[in-house]
Amino acid sequence: MLRSNVKAGEIGPVNATKYDTPALMLDMDALERNIGRMADYFRGKKAKLRPHVKGHKSPFIAQMQIIAGAAGVTCATMKEAEVMVQSGINDVFIANEILDEEKIQMLAKLARYSSIKVAVDSERNAKQISNAASRRMSKIGILIDVNLGGQTGFEGILDRCGLPPGPSVATLANEVSRMKNLEFKGLMGYEGGLRKFPEYERRKAACERALTLLIETRDLVSDSGLSVDTVSCGGTRSYNIAGEFPGVTEVQAGSYVFMDETYRRFGLGFEIASTVSASVISNPKAHKVITDAGLKAISMDQGLPLVKDKPEWEVTDLNAEHGHIIVKRVDEVIDVGQTVELVPTHIDTTVCLHDSYLLVRDGKFEMRLGVAARGY
To answer: SS3 breakdown of the chain: % helix, strand, coil, rounded to 5?
Structure first.
């Protein structure tokens, strides 16, 4: 079994017989199997796993991933990085642009306590970071963000931040290499969106086309005279594509630890580890129930949740505080007060609605774990 050595005061006892709903549940047995499965895949690979923590927002879980072999962590926000560093994690990459001056100052401070890397896509932003690091006498690693999405015309790949693949990346890399207290580390791209391609072969073809551009851009940077130590990319949908692609050095898969219904449909082999426990609070008419888990407890940005182990129960709507469920079996016995588990369609946007997880092992409650980076 995997164990974390985090001692951050974020864990507390849980009453084993009663808890308030809605509650964010975490099946530790499934979580450990997911972490172990991903660690087994990367064992012996040239590419390393640098898991994204934006989904679980927990240094306790991040430490479990590192103990299993992860090379460090990936964060989406400055505050997530701060929470991870404060918990003793010493290799942190922020896979996002940080432009706010106060956040940049914190970035420079954190770099005195941990190995910190951040993505940039402009000379102006790199100069901001260089100035802050110089004042704080710290050193910050820089990865140039390469947009593998809309600018390259790849359907299904997210069009977000970053420079288009090609010479502009090499130009910025060389500018960064000359800036004080910055260390050019390499490139970052993201080909892992691909929600439109549940079929593995189509997903693989799209990923490989995008990654080819990323590696060709790496070669341009290398030809300009710079060493490119890191090519960081990937996600849960593409971990076993990016992880095999020549030239990729690390993969940022994160959602595999918990999974959700959207990821499950891709047949990735990981288990649903996190659900939302809800109570039936009303049975207003035959075959309809109302639960106490609505939009404040579970997200629906990628669709309505499912009811775990109850295929005849269908969630039809969510209000702020209520969930609407139709029960399709005419002989189903409905008890007001009974609990059901809801499987989110998007775990990232569900976790951030809760202050803590209720940890379960062998079907029994063990303890409460704070969502330490919630709100960040």
So the answer is: 30, 25, 45
Task: Give the single-character DSSP code of 198.
Answer: -
Query: Is 38 within a domain?
Result: yes
Tell me the per-residue pLDDT of 17-47, one tens digit each, with 9 for 90 and over: 468 999 999 999 999 999 999 999 999 999 9
**Residue pLDDT, tens place only, 326-349:** 999 878 888 999 999 999 999 999
Cβ contact 338:345 at 8 Å: no
- How far apart (Å, rounded) are the C-alpha atoms in residues 175 and 173? 5
DSSP output for 319-349 = -SS-EEEEE--TT----TT-EEEEE-S-SHH
E strands, 173-214, are 182-189
Pairing relation of β-strands 306-307 and 140-146?
unpaired
Distance, in Å, from the CA atom of 49 to the CA atom of 63, rounded to the nearest integer, reads: 13
Rounded CA-CA distance 224/138 in Å is: 27
What is the per-residue pLDDT across 266-282, written as a single tens digit (0 to 9) for each?
A: 899 999 999 999 999 99
Q: Which residues pair with 145 in a beta bridge?
A: 188
- Measure the CA–CA gap between 53 and 72, rounded to whole angstroms: 10
Q: What is the CATH number of the domain that holds 148?
A: 3.20.20.10
Going by pLDDT thresholds of 50, 70 and 90, the confidence category of residue 299 is very high
Q: Which domain holds residue 75?
A: 28-256
Split at pLDDT 50, 70, 90, the class of 262 is very high
**Domain membership flag for residue 51:** yes
Total structural domains within the chain? 1
